Amino acid sequence: MASSILKNLVKFSSSTATTTATRSFSLVTTQISNHTAKWMQDTSKKSPMELINEVPPIKVEGRIVACEGDTDPALGHPIEYICLDLAKPAVCKYCGLRYVQDHHH
């Protein structure tokens, strides 16, 4: 008897989890498409990448820079150490800020 109750509980919980996951996924998909549509409709506003590309490369004296995205840790991103040995600007993979060694330019 205990094994039949256990089987029914397992069957019920697996079917409920699938339904819940499907509902949650469809809700997220709707939110993402609405957010993207908002950016696509208004062509007078610049995209986040266009705004970041307008920031000139930040000149740094040393060979390595630590990018945190913002001076306030709550608004930044995980710290990334970027090597600046190349002549072209190095880009932070989190925020897109560009850094260059001061003696290269």
From TrEMBL:
Gene Ontology annotations of biological process type: mitochondrial electron transport, NADH to ubiquinone
Domain Zinc finger CHCC-type per the UniProt entry, residue ranges: 62-99
Pfam families reported in the protein's UniProt record: zf-CHCC
GO CC annotations on file: mitochondrion
Name the UniProt record assigns to this protein: Zinc finger CHCC-type domain-containing protein
The organism of origin for this protein: Pisum sativum
